[in-house]
Specification:
Blueprint: H1 32-52, H2 67-72, E1 77-81, E2 87-89, E3 92-94, H3 99-107, E4 114-119, H4 125-137, E5 142-145, H5 148-154
Helix pairs in contact: 3-4
């Protein structure tokens, strides 16, 4: 300290105090978090979509036949159930009590266990279900319903 002057350290520009900007509230919306949420929801829906798809397995016939060809085919079993509760299998009369045993004797040696029911539209649903139950109990695997529209398309009078 020979000169008696105090030495100050030099900081190259730090002699002045600098203040940062003051923070102000902004009216602009920050949409980045919303985009993140939307992307997460999109991924969740894409992952759950295959789980919600449902389908029905069906066996389609190899070739279609007209209703008239089906009626004339003697190998097919057609059960007629009239409005006065008269049951016949291929034009042979049967009572409700002997229906299952008659169907069992018909279908026990048959390879194709398919039966068609032609019933009157005025019958109650429960009566048709009784006939279908008897057919299933006799070993019938497939039961088809012949509608009045099919009969008209085949040229058969639906009133018969």
């Amino acid at each position: 300290m020979s000169s008696g002057r105090s030495h100050r350290k030099s900081h190259f520009g730090a002699d002045e105090n600098y203040k940062g900007k003051e923070l102000h509230a902004s009216a602009d919306m920050n949409i980045t978090p919303m985009i993140d949420v939307l992307l997460v929801l999109l991924v969740i829906f894409m992952a759950s979509l295959p789980l919600t798809q449902k389908g029905l397995d069906i066996n389609l016939p190899a070739e279609t036949k007209t209703a008239q060809q089906q009626q004339t085919d003697s190998s097919q079993i057609v059960l007629d159930f009239t409005a006065d509760r008269h049951i016949s299998i291929n034009k042979q009369d049967v009572t409700m009590n002997e229906l299952e045993s008659k169907l069992r004797t018909i279908f026990e040696e048959r390879k194709e266990k398919t039966m068609f029911i032609s019933a009157a539209g005025s019958l109650r649903y429960g009566e048709i279900v009784q006939v279908i139950d008897a057919a299933k109990g006799a070993g019938v695997e497939k039961v088809g319903i012949v509608t009045e529209g099919m009969k008209r398309a085949a040229g058969v009078n639906p009133a018969n």
